[in-house]
């Protein structure tokens, strides 16, 4: 039987829409799995075009075994590539570095994995209105899935603090956009307080079903590696839904005997939005909220909802929490972008974190690491263009690709091309699905 279990006091109850226990701990989905073999998921790879070819619903038995398939709202999502790029590996100093590109999901971020599950559950219980607070990607994803399901979507976003690509999506997909004169944490507070009064179903990652869907990043990445776990999984960290989901996925696979080795999770925060890093470094028992500030707006979060679940993930996987500067994030982004893969700023925290942990000797040069790229390059094209034009305050744009202005004159263009450096080396190594 599937039920909710409080991660702090262990209290269990039937699944409902109250996500915080009276003790203050968060509930998570607790499954009683039967016998599950990896052949089940490998067999489904042949089901091209069916519901089970979604990179989330392929693993339904590990995510929501009891949901009636008629309620599933799927694009489909997932099936994102696992890349190997020599330049990125060299930059981080880790030869066995891979990039799991979650920006290749339908709405351009990993959020679609949790959202397909959250919206399907909303439909199954007859919800009419769904809502979330967001730094942008959750709102884009929720707006898309709500539109598909015929639900009314309401998104609370911090005014002036989300990238245009994301705002464009929420508006275009038809959600009601509420711009809060405050930051993400203020918006999240309103969502938690307002759900009952305003009658909406919450689709932030405080909703345990979102976490269940996000576990599929791990399942799919492992399946792409023939179920051979890497040494490290490195992930950008904001509201801490992914860190929580990754630990839960690995714990469940280990308990089911489906993996032998536990990869270590490295959760990477921006220096200016680092409450989880501070908690990890200190003797404190509780997260200390802060006023966040980082160029990576997706992870500009000072009071992460899932810190307690995430802390358990780090402890259970012998993991680590690290912080990186905005300069390191933008540098790593420029390298990922120039490798032809590309990502939004927050995503690059994973590679910046990998590099820092390698330099500190925490990650060995011969270890394998999968860095999760959480969002697409096109989400925040403003920041990318400003970086290359040299217009970002406090950022030392060391890897600028500066455009040149020239009259429409072929010989002048010829001169410019002659002064350019040698042609880039060919990138040939790709490991796709
Ligand atoms: N990367 C991107 C691109 C994100 O959009 C987010 C979170 C994260 C990383 C952090 O992930 O919260 O699981 O630790 N974005 C949320 C949003 C908060 O509203 O779109 P996390």
Compact overview of the structure:
The protein is an alpha/beta fold.
Q: What ligands can be seen in this structure?
A: ligand F0G
Shape: globular
How would you classify the helix and strand content by structural class? alpha/beta
Number of helices: 16
Fraction of residues in helices?
25-40%
Q: Write down how many β-strands occur, each being a DSSP E stretch of 2 or more residues.
A: 13
Largest sheet: 6 strands, mixed
Rg calculated over all Cα atoms: 21 Å
Core attributes:
433 residues; binds ligand F0G; alpha/beta; four-stranded parallel beta sheet; disordered C terminus
What would your notes on this structure say?
By secondary structure, the protein is of the alpha/beta class. The chain has helices at residues 38-44, 60-63, 86-92, 111-124, 137-149, 164-172, 184-198, 208-214, 216-224, 241-255, 275-281, 307-316, 326-338, 345-359, 381-389, 410-419; strands at 3-6, 12-13, 27-30, 82-83, 96-101, 129-133, 152-158, 176-180, 201-202, 232-236, 264-270, 320-324, 368-373. α4 runs parallel beside α5 (137-149), α8 (208-214) crosses α10 (241-255) and α13 crosses α14 (345-359). The longest helix has 15 residues, at 184-198. The model is unreliable at 428-433 (pLDDT under 50). It binds ligand F0G. Ligand F0G binds at residues 109, 111, 134-138, 236-243, 298-299, 344, 346-347, 374-375.
